[in-house]
Amino acid sequence: MRVLHTSDWHLGRSFHRVPLLDAQAAYLDHLVETVARYDVDAVVVAGDVYDRAVPPLTAVQLFDDALHRLAAAGVPTVMISGNHDSARRLGVGAGLMARAGVHLRTDPADCATPVVLADAHGDVAFYGLPYLEPVLVRDTLGAAKAGHEAVLTAAMGRIRADLAARPEGTRSVVLAHAFVAGGEPSDSERDITVGGVAAVPAGVFDGVDYVALGHLHGCQTVTERVRYSGSPLAYSFSEHAHRKTMWLIDLGPAGELAAERVDCPVPRRLARLRGRLAALLEDPALERHTQAWVEATLTDPVRPDEPMARLTERFPHTLGLVLEPERAAEDPHASYAQRLGGRDDHQIAEDFVSHVRGGSGPSEQERTVLRAAFDDVRVHDAVNEVPR
Question: For a designed S-S bond to 80, which of 34, 130, 220, 372 qualifies (C-beta 3.0 to 4.6 A apart)?
Fold first, then answer.
């Protein structure tokens, strides 16, 4: 069976205020063309179909058009909700859509109810694990505690039990939206840390023929059978070196696996440039970046006059400007942004406690309280579908 694995469309998202709807439409055209060109048997979409819980109408229309085209092609599609999606909204009409071959899996309680497709060698069971917010699904899944590893372990236990009851030789594909250890994140994924832990071990998925992951935006192989397709478009400058692709997976009669990357169309290349303004404006080696979307980090000791206006004369698609003067790391004049670079919300809160106490950081008990507060806010936002 030939499976096309994609994820993290983030329909409705822009790139530094540049609308991407046309680029997302071009990608979906490419997806449908790839299905026909490679004689694909099934398409799997591993979450984050939309960029936010309440997407703009233009994004909904784009999604609707894609579903109609995939259904018209007669190719079954299995998709799950991600942490950016509203599972309840995405799942509306799932029963009716299934009749057209579009199978939405957005309810954690249905994780062990597969979509079963057949080829010449027997059945392939596709199990959909939507993004699992630990506090919200712990009781539903009977997990030992409210953590990512615990709820995924409980869900996979249900899946293995269902698979064991199926005819011998039934192959399996699991769709999941999670941060699996060994994966490389970028700046454009929303933090899903719970209790200080975000990643789960790949071993949670042992015993499955293929695991189609979503959440991380770089295409990558965690293990031979556990892979991220990545996002089809770049959504941050941290992805400037990514090769945006989908996975074309061939699942053999006994679960043998062959994987090939299929490139996605690139609307415009990304470039991250660093140096003094004069050097960036004069260096002939940078000529190749004049038509790229550019993020420029200026290292001039003193802020130059009108840096953005001067940069856009040479690089008309400059979207980001970062000022990092050449100073010692301990320089008291370092910018607030520089001091916070690389720290998550919890670490910033701990740093604040240390600052107001004159250097004394929070106790372990206080760290636990801070962690719980951030977890509560995230769960509240998930329940109330607060846009971010």
Answer: 130
Query: What pLDDT digit, counting tens, does each position of 170-219 carry?
Result: 999 999 999 999 999 999 998 888 777 789 999 999 999 999 999 999 99
* Whole-Å CA distances, 226 to 192, 257, 306, 334: 20, 11, 48, 42
| Residue 9 · residue 257 · CB < 8 Å | no
Instruction: Judge if pTM exceeds 0.85.
Output: yes
- What is d(CA 301, CA 251) in angstroms, rounded to the nearest whole number? 57
- Other residues' Cβ atoms within 10 Å of the Cβ of residue 294: 26
52 touches 84 (CB < 8 A): yes
Is the CB of residue 103 less than 8 Å from the CB of residue 79? Answer: yes
CB 93 within 8 A of CB 64: no
251 DSSP β-pair partners: 257
pLDDT tens track for 78-134 = 999 999 999 999 999 999 999 999 999 999 999 999 999 999 999 999 999 999 999
Region for residue 306 given its phi and psi (left: phi exceeds 0; alpha: psi -120 to 50; beta: otherwise): left
